[in-house]
Design a protein that fits this description.
cell wall biogenesis/degradation; Peptidase_S11; Peptidoglycan synthesis regulatory factor (PBP3), Domain 2; serine-type D-Ala-D-Ala carboxypeptidase; 29% strand; hydrolase; alpha+beta; six-stranded mixed β-sheet; Beta-lactamase; carboxypeptidase activity
């Protein structure tokens, strides 16, 4: 079972806004490939070429971090472990490489805890290589772990060749896969996720700032990436009013365009949608008449929540109407189907939610039933 299936809430029914006739919201971005997901519901709020394979650049480090966190959790590694900076790591990912670096000194032993910070905050290619060599003996060996983890999570269109994301034949990701990976990181490693929101890290006398432009604008993670082949990309997450969104986009022409388009997409997800709970499980919604019972009516409730993620304000003209099956002959069992809650716009029924008896109702005594029958007949005759 993939992680995407595990995300579906057990007691919350999510209905697309269009199911209630809500107008679709128009949004466009200059990003060649992008996706925006509401984490709580799993609903895709926007996508554009989200399954197109692209080079990952430093966004591959999200999978590197995932493998490391998983190994730490399983006791296969510790943040106190130290690894030596090899000549290969120093040359390929160090200060003279021209890429993102943690400025690791060659042959110095560095703790895994510091390497993780250098990987996430400084996006150090040297940190990624040292981690891979320290935990798996080589970049190739670590890439095997990355691909095994990707398969387990459900990243069906991504393949990793190295831990840092620098160009390599056969290495690719999609924005849909990266959004799923971000959700997995957030949900599976909540104790580690705050690292993605740290704004700077000082190592070897050098302080470097986190490159995520959305951290100062309301996001709390995750990662940026850039190579000539991939363009400027970003995976980010943010919350508002108890909702969390994840966005992934790539292919921008500059860091400024990346910041601008990511901010627009983040604002769209947080400001233009709202989650509205129309029905709560167990909440009394109405009553149904009971015939021949120890009481004249029974409370009706729903078994599941009905929550809608919709364009903000789109449900203002939707009304609720209760239809019961009454009079229901006694005895009535608790949980017995007893009616519906109908949600309508004008004369059009948009949604029906089954309702059930909230309690058991026994049959009344003989005298009470006879009296009820007489009263019913008398009322019927008078109405004629």
């Amino acid at each position: 079972m993939t992680f995407r299936r595990l995300l579906a809430p057990f007691l919350v029914l999510i209905v697309a806004a269009c199911g209630f006739g809500a107008p679709a919201l128009a949004f466009e971005t200059k990003a060649p490939t992008a996706i925006l997901v509401d984490v709580g519901t799993g609903r895709v709020l926007f996508e554009k070429n989200a399954d197109d394979p692209i080079p990952p650049a430093s966004l591959a480090k999200l999978m590197t971090a995932t493998v490391v966190f998983d190994m730490i959790r399983k006791g296969e590694a510790s943040k106190d472990d130290t690894f030596e900076v090899s000549e290969h790591a120093w040359k390929e990912g160090g200060a003279n490489s021209g890429g993102s670096t943690m400025f690791l000194p060659v042959h110095k032993r560095v703790s895994l805890g510091d390497l993780i910070k250098g990987l996430i905050i400084q996006s150090g290619n040297d940190a990624a290589i040292v981690i891979a060599e320290g935990l798996s003996g080589s970049e190739q060996g670590f890439a095997e772990k990355m691909n095994a983890e990707a398969k387990a999570i459900g990243l069906s269109h991504s393949h990793f060749v190295n831990p840092h994301g620098l160009p390599a034949e056969g290495q690719q990701v999609t924005m849909r896969d990266l959004a799923l990976l971000a959700e997995y990181l957030i949900k599976t490693f909540p104790e580690e996720y705050p690292l993605f929101s740290e704004e700077s890290f000082r190592f070897n006398g050098i302080t470097q700032r986190n490159r995520n432009p959305l951290l100062a604008l309301g996001a709390d993670g995750l990662k940026t990436g850039h190579t000539a082949a991939a363009g400027y990309g970003l995976v980010a997450s943010a919350t508002k009013d108890g909702r969390r969104i994840v966005l992934a986009m790539s292919g921008m022409q500059s860091s400024e365009e990346r910041a601008r388009e990511a901010k627009r997409l983040m604002d769209f997800g947080l400001q233009d949608f709202e989650e509205v709970t129309l029905v709560k499980a167990g909440e009394p919604l109405g009553t149904a008449r009971v015939a021949g019972g120890s009481q004249a009516s029974v409370q009706l409730t729903a078994r599941e929540d009905l929550a809608l993620l919709v364009p903000r304000g789109s449900l203002k003209d939707v009304s609720r109407h209760i239809v019961d099956n009454g009079p229901i002959p006694a005895p009535v069992a608790m949980g017995q189907r007893a009616g519906w809650a109908l949600f309508s716009r004008g004369d059009e029924t948009m949604r029906e939610v089954p309702l059930y008896a909230a309690e058991a109702v026994d049959r009344a005594g003989v005298v009470a039933r006879v009296a009820e029958t007489i009263v019913g007949q008398f009322s019927s005759e008078r109405s004629e």
